[in-house]
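[worker-b] picked up task from shared queue
[worker-b] task type: protein-ligand structure
[worker-b] ligand name resolved to coenzyme A; SMILES cross-checked against name lookup, match
[worker-b] sequence length check passed
[worker-b] input payload:
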Amino acid sequence: MSTGYEFRVEGHLDEHWTRVLDGFSVRHAPDGTTTLTGSVLDQAQLHGHLARIRDLGAVLLSLRALPDDAGDRVEMVAVADPLSRVDWPRCTDRLELRPASAQDAEATWRFRRLESVSRWLTVAPADLESYRAVFERPARLATTLVVELDGRVVGDLMLRVEDAWAQREVAEQAREAQAELGWVLDPELAGRGYATEAVRELIRICFEELGIRRVVATCFADNEPSWRLMERVGMRRELHAVSDALHRSAGWSDTFAYAVLSTEWSRVG
Ligand SMILES: CC(C)(COP(=O)(O)OP(=O)(O)OC[C@H]1O[C@@H](n2cnc3c(N)ncnc32)[C@H](O)[C@@H]1OP(=O)(O)O)[C@@H](O)C(=O)NCCC(=O)NCCS
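[worker-b] inference finished, payload out:
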């Protein structure tokens, strides 16, 4: 039996979302929020919708099960927040890793504003204020870690936990089975193994503490430092996609996808 749900998210989302959420209706409210209403078959489908909302970067304000024939049943369900399930900070030989906060915007902007860094990143904001608007979004902070060296922020990492693709009948078993990682290091500190050290620790946390079974990462094929890092930490190149991604200055470009399974990690980690 299906259950009706109402998701309320920040901002006015466009009609495209009715396709993203399997036919949910979209209603724009005067307070600048959007309400998506529809029904789900089971918890697995509900969590799939939550993962899609999270992956598309929309900020979820509330989730409500709509009253059914059994009465006025209303419940709130928290959005999965993987970083909150781990104790922080984490220390490696030389570095400290901790979840990012809004106060880290300026420190990360110091290296993210450099062309040699931003040329590989999804967005290249023009100034600190536009960068801050992106960095401080709750959905972004919930998946961002900063890397500190002697108390100074020298890099940041992305950890996005997601459901693996699965057929409907076994979807529950694929929930939060996969994590996608990303990384940025201050170029002043390149070539000393700091990124390797931070990413190794993050992969270890994924497998040993979050129970993830597969860690993935992607990059432009031309971003050699990034894919060399993936290989240093034991990831395997699984995909070379030809001319599938549009780079803002290089045009249509090839991309690589890498992955490592928890069973493999225990052998190389
Ligand atoms: C991707 C990125 C993090 C890689 O940085 P990096 O400095 O090459 O990586 P590390 O810090 O792990 O350093 C590795 C280098 O240090 C050397 N090194 C020295 N000591 C080391 C140690 N203890 N452990 C490992 N490597 C060590 C390695 O041999 C390697 O050198 P090489 O490149 O000459 O082979 C960095 O280039 C970056 O931030 N790029 C811009 C943002 C970006 O592209 N992000 C990814 C988008 S997909």
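[worker-b] attaching auto-annotations
[worker-b] Confidence is low (pLDDT under 50) at residues 69-79.
[worker-b] releasing lock
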